[in-house]
Amino acid sequence: MGSRASLRTGLLWMIGVGLLGFVSAAALTSLGVRMPTLVAAAFELASIVGPTALCWVAVHRAGYRRPEVVLAAAAVTSWTGGSIFYLAMLLAHSPVTFPTFADVGTALFYALIAAALVVAVRRRARRVSSSMWWDAVVGALGMAVVLAVVLDRLLTPALMGHGPLATIALTAYPLCDVLLLVTVAGVAALRNVRMGNGWAVLVTGLMIFSAADLSYSMKAAAGSYLYGTTWDAGWILGITLIALWADSTVRDQPARATSVASGAVSLAVSSGATLAGLTVLVLHQWLPVSTMALVLAGVTLLAAAARSELAFRRLARLARLLRRTAATDELTGLPNRRAITAEAEERLASKGGRRQALLVLDLDKFKEVNDSLGHHVGDQLLVRVGARLREHLGSGDLLARLGSDEFAVLMDDAGRDEAVPRAVTLRAALDEPFVLLNIALHLSVSVGIAVLPDDGDDLNALLSKADKAMYKAKSASSGYHVYSSVDDADAASRLQTVEELRTALVTDQLVLHYQPKIDLDTDEVSSVEALVRWQHPTRGLLYPDAFLGLVEEFGLMPSLTQVVLELALDQAAVWARQGQPLTVAVNLSASSLVDGNLPDRVTAMLAARSVPPSVLQLEITEEFLMADRDRARSILARLRDGGVEISVDDFGTGYSSLSYLLDLPVDELKLDRSLVYTMGDDARAAALVASTIALAHSLDLRMVAEGVETGRVFSELRRLGCDQAQGYFMSRPVPAADLDHWLNNRPEHDWSTDIASAIPIRLSVVRGRDAELDAGGEPSAAGQRAGSR
Hints:
CATH topology of the largest domain: TIM Barrel
Structural class: alpha/beta
Largest sheet: 8 strands, mixed, barrel
CATH architecture of the largest domain: Alpha-Beta Barrel
Distance between the termini: 77 Å
Shape: elongated
Strand order of the largest sheet: 8-9-11-12-13-14-15-16
Radius of gyration: 45 Å
Number of domains: 3
Strand content: 5-15%
Number of strands: 16
CATH superfamily of the largest domain: EAL domain
Helix content: 55-70%
């Protein structure tokens, strides 16, 4: 490596000294001081042999793997050989006639250096589009037009009276230079072709070399050429710069490569070429222009026209693509909101107010899928949903994705009577489970329906009405709802409630009621379940069914979970200080349990209150456990390792599986109230409860029955060996102070008298709860289920 660097340095010194000496000799000659021809030839020989050697050193360094460098070295060698032959003729005082071997060497130089240019460009322009090549052609033709006019004006008068061979030889030099410069102009028109930092050096060298050629041809034609002038130094300098380009090409790293032309430069070259062609054709009316220049000008304009046509076609294709992209949902490939709006407007315009029914579909609890399984699974699910909905469309239906988990179906020539059956069909289509990551995901969808022109005169109005109906459908047992004017007030009320909820989360409006769990062996109370209520400033005490749906929908569940945990642990700390330690169970939603920071936050909250982890129990649902078992195992294991108990709520419904009970860290099972509620009158339900209790005990798990509302059920659970029970037969959920009073004053082993006799239900403060109360004045099992979240 060191020897190569030394050789390169020596060659550069040789080139510099030779070129300096030759230029000095030429300058003295111009001043009338004639330096001996032998001395000038020695300097010239050093200055032309040096670049040749430098080229071949570069070839050797590249291992002959760079064809453009090999071609450039061969071109420089060819010119050097011709120049040495010319010097030998001068030193031998032989007459110089046309053509000579020197001219052959120069001709080979042009062919080889042009080939080097082509190869260099091809190596770096493998992905150049057809339009860029057209830019290159137009730019090259424009340069050809300009040079043809220049040569015609400069050379034609000088060549008058010369013989055919002399004329050909003298014309060949500038014509070959024209071809080189035309090639350079074409390359300059190529955008984003990275040629390396030496490209400017090469272009400069070719231009200087071409200028020297033109000067030589003009002087030789006029008979005034004299060897050894400063114009001869142009050849040597041009060859030197070409050699330096070959050297830099090998030495350049890919990261240093630079773009030949930006879009602006390319446009300027192409536009300049077109202008040159037009100028020549216009000037032909007043000035004589050669036939070659006229032909090149015409060809340039034709090429420019072809390039423009190609550009217009590409712009048209791009415009169509942009329109299609702008109207298509990127994820599902379905039309988007813009597309369905345009389609509705077109139908209205062409069909004169014909009825249009709009169905807005929103996937229920889709956020839990994203939170539990990740957004990539959520995206796959949306694609599957879109595909399944498409299979159940009518001939005049347009399906679109509005965004997130919302879809819309625009039905042509349809009213309410046609829209409702279609809503039922689409809901049934999504009832079939979707299998992703080997997990069967069960979806439900809420559908809002609005009809044009009854509910609005354009799609934007219709979307607004259908959206309001969709939110109403979320609470409807049918899962769909047709818009009515009453929904406007409901929508406004929903938004107001959400804002009030945000305030409630930070102003202590949320309170907890506690329902005791009775040990069926000892009748002792060692744990309670905390249930959230909203003490609304104007509407009174609100149960969870009045606001939990909005909490989930608007992403407020993390904040609510934090508040509930803090309130529950604060109360647990109070009971611990009073000498009556109670374990407090808190329900957590699936969206809260996917929070990887939950175990650390729970640990910090326990430490801040100086209470042991055993005072907290977290109740989760089977649905979460089955949705993402790996995530469940990780989070639950961290919580349980920290001393927090884990209870599976609503056990026995939907997703029950023996395998997860073995795989996941669980301490307790809570038998779903739907089984407990019916076991007093249904022998099969009682048998199922008995087998479930036996299963729990065989796995060393505690069994709790919730929803106990009669003494008969209470006694049967005790007989079957159930560990704990909670329900309205013993106590409804009550504030902490009332629970303290009940615990201190409850009759020993007598559940015929419960807290209901001491704390009457206040129906007047709970708007809309009357339908959830049974004949005895207590909330029914169904009502308590809604209030337990």
